[in-house]
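DM between two lab members

TW: hey, do you still have the Sugar ABC transporter permease entry open?
JB: yeah, one sec
JB: this one, 330 aa:
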Amino acid sequence: MRKTEPSRLGANGGDAAVRPRPSPLGWIRDEFRHMRKNRELLLLALPGIVFKFVIAYLPMVGLILAFKYYRYDQGIFGSKWVGLQNFEFLFKAQDAIRIIRNTLLYNFTYIILGTVAALLLALLMNELTGRLIKIYQTTLFLPFFISMVLVGYIGNAFLDFENGYLNTMLAWFGLEPRSWYLETTPWIFLLPLASLWKGIGFSTLVYYAGITGISTEYYEAAKLDGATRVQMMTRITLPLLKPLVVILFILGLGNIFRGDFGLHYFLPNNVGMNFPTTDVIDTYVYRALTKLADINSAAAVGFLQSVVGLITVVSANALVRRIDKDSALF
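TW: and the structure you got?
JB:
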């Protein structure tokens, strides 16, 4: 039997041709050709790229301060290397367990509570029509633009011992006023409520935008089958929002080791009596930095927070990818 030559697979051969991998030089040539073709768009994006590089990437040179004993007269690169010595500041601190516990528990609470509440509000907003939807959007989104300094003053108006609104209302019912800033238990509830009030508007609008992107054909077909509004929420809206919810949840986990400094510093008014339930890593490092001027330890803690956040995001994404590949971030 005569041996036949292997057929060359191509466009006419029924199977797709296996393209050879381009050489590095060819890849660079293709990229330059692509950039030349889209030079107008790149020119428009150039200010944003430069801003991102200067603000986010250029300062990363300072990460080496986490491994050095910095001296002003020697500069960043001339200072002495000390290895992991600066990281002992956090783990050997007397309050290390407390501030790490508070940071993790509060962030988990903020993520779970914020996700559930924002989803519920987005589903309810989807049922509204007319001008009411604009009013609710503005009302929910307005606290997002209020600075944490102003939030601290608003909190003081409610919690002040002599003239606070809460103590005034307690007096109406014949109850004794409370020193809110000198107690620890109330802050377990006050901080999550304040975080929810300030951030829920942005999260709600993100989920609402995702809902508006769902094709109306699904809902029309469900109505023809006699589905109720609750059934359409649970069987259509929530399943189609799952990838967006998972992505935002993974991104939220990236800050699990990073406390909300503004919320935990200005709202409790930096009163030492409530530190057991309000102090987080960022506020603790800030006080240590202002009192000891220890730039090295502060840089080490910031570097550690970033590393833990990166590991958390990658691990959470890998777990989601194994369960549902389409819902993974990358």
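TW: got it. The beta strands are 68-71, 79-81. The chain has 15 helices and two strands.
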